[in-house]
Amino acid sequence: MRVYEILKEYQIQPRHLEKIGKVYKVFSGNNVFALKETEVTKGKNLFSIYPFLYHKGFYRFVPLYPAKNGQYMILRDQKLYYLMPWLGSEARPVETNHARKMFRELARLHLLTSQEMEMDQTNIEDHFERTSGQWNKEMQYLDSWIEQCEQKWYMSPFEWEFVQYYHEFQKAYEYALRTLKIWKDTMLESKKIRTVLLHGKVSLDHFVFDDKGYGYFINFDESRIGSSYQDLLPFLSNTLSTYPMNGEDCMEWLNIYMKHYPLKETELLLMKSYLAHPGFMIQLLNRYQTRVAPNHELKYTKKIQQAYWKLKNIENIIMKLEMKTES
């Protein structure tokens, strides 16, 4: 078995293995290790990321063990493998406190790796034109859908739901475009942006705890340099994809983050614009048209209701961010 061959490179004789996704939980003697499999293209980043983090003074990540040849990666069949100590969920706090600690450390990661740089007028205008152009096309797509639905004598349950929600999604697009325009105008005045080292795949599963309760990031496979919102938005989007909620937890996490890494006006504008953008609705409409799933109509009618809940949850967060900005 390939895993046993790889573990020999670390001089480990396992007594038991458990596969959890792309991670092997390795039991050897009294020790427990995590052997992670990743793509070659992603694993290459790790060679530079960990020394970079050490240099910047950020140590809240699970370290890698070297193999007997001194290398930190083992290549087998176009896959890379690396070994870490296993930090399990036994010491994992309740979810809300887990997220608080993760957002605090994420802010520290961004703060310690932050760099300010100039952004010229052409790049600012190109980003605005490209993004707003795409969003306007999506709005036209929504318009074509509503026209088709309203021309029918009998709409399907999914189409009926879409007609009920159409104006709400339209307003979200209008807000996103309006905020993006304000971002462009503000950026043209400052022409400065900050980049950070992104974790790349922020989730509670990728922030683990030792037996003393200290939290550490794992899975830097998709780490890269970018804007801070690129770490924040996917986590928020996933969290808000649920039943209607008041958003207090999300705002608390954002406040913790911004306490340790305050966002500049342009960064907050861009984050609000992208957060408000309801592109998930376009994806849902495209999937609905394929009509390949069993019980297609029932499943997608539930999905569009869930999409509406997500829209309202995001709207709630946007309103709280607007109130915070005004105060």
TrEMBL record:
Residues 80-236 form the Aminoglycoside phosphotransferase domain. It comes from Caldifermentibacillus hisashii. This is Spore coat protein YsxE. It comes from the Bacteria. InterPro entries: Aminoglycoside_PTrfase, CotS-like, Kinase-like_dom_sf, Spore_coat_YsxE. Keywords: Capsid protein, Virion. Gene3D superfamilies: 3.90.1200.10, Phosphorylase Kinase, domain 1.
